[in-house]
Records
---
Amino acid sequence: QSALTQPPSASGSPGQSVTISCTGTSSDVGGYNYVSWYQQHPGKAPKLMIYDVSRRPSGVPDRFSGSKSGNTASLTVSGLQAEDEADYYCNSYAGSRLVFGGGTKLTVL
Amino acid sequence: EVQLVESGGGLVQPGGSLRLSCAASGFMFNDWHMDWVRQAPGKGLEWVSYISSRSEAIYYADSVKGRFSVSRDNAKNSLYLQMNSLRDEDTAVYYCARDSGLGYSIDYWGQGTLVTVSS
């Protein structure tokens, strides 16, 4: 069970947009529209930001958006704010199991 | 308010056993599927196990299959993870988590309990 592939780091200045990729295979990301994204601040539990590739739970700002093309999903954070600095993890259903990405540390410059 | 409170973590020697518990409150526990997810120190998240609301379906990550066993007691609003034959690489914070019912995502997480496997 290989983890999904995410870049270890990403960065942007306040107000800018940044996109984080999440690459899997046809057995996970490419095979199902069940990609979710989580935000984790240091020492805190993860928070659900996106589910079903592009849907936002209530309370999540519309600055956060998700998409998918083939075996790669993406999370875009628009209008970056200081509080967006955190680790971000993608996750995909893979048939009777879930698989996470290795995580991306987003730095707001 | 949804609350998930894990307990049972601690220091254990390689080859040993430990049982984690998760006390749920603030929602109808028997209506929700649950997961265990772990995070090694300084590392990323790793899904460990899933159990459906009435325990009909149970799944494990390959890394723990045959060694870990998940169960739940809906009458006690509790989730459990029995961990046997523990290895150094099982050292992690273990989170109890609730399936959101929105696709295969997780909407609530506990604060986690640290399991350290070391001699």
---
Amino acid sequence: GIQVEQSPPDLILQEGANSTLRCNFSDSVNNLQWFHQNPWGQLINLFYIPSGTKQNGRLSATTVATERYSLLYISSSQTTDSGVYFCAVESQGGSEKLVFGKGTKLTVNP
Amino acid sequence: DTGVSQDPRHKITKRGQNVTFRCDPISEHNRLYWYRQTLGQGPEFLTYFQNEAQLEKSRLLSDRFSAERPKGSFSTLEIQRTEQGDSAMYLCASSLEVVGRKFFGPGTRLTVL
């Protein structure tokens, strides 16, 4: 099945810093989502982005489907951005299930 | 749109007991998914429904696990004869389209003593 790799596994920032999280996937996809998992375990939708670029406030994401990667940018980070960020993909021609990476754990210090 | 809801949010049980979790998807979403997440890992797919029909089951779903969606609305996930290895967060998601954004509920955290 499709493989999803996220990097870095851990990231520690000072408040106000910018960061880039990466997601590589091994096959063509027709769905890619970025999630933020808060300390209570809730998966919060950030982006639905199988291709192209989107922006939402301080967050933006770019997926280059032909090269099989996606990037999540966080600018002017805040302590509330802390948590685990997951990339999840649904492969073309595969079943209707999201396959998740192992996540990037982000810690933003004040 | 009230979001996906799950009940209970937390469940502590003794090994060997049966437990049942409920998921209410976003109304009019005909697809419903169950995932399991263990500590330090990403969620892993268990099974999914299109309306009442259970269309796919992961090999993670042993014979002790059963899921239903009897009227095509809410779903239940039952674990019989729980084991300590069943301790995990159980997540439910729903979507409207075949290929589209999936929305997750808050999860049920199961602890088996």
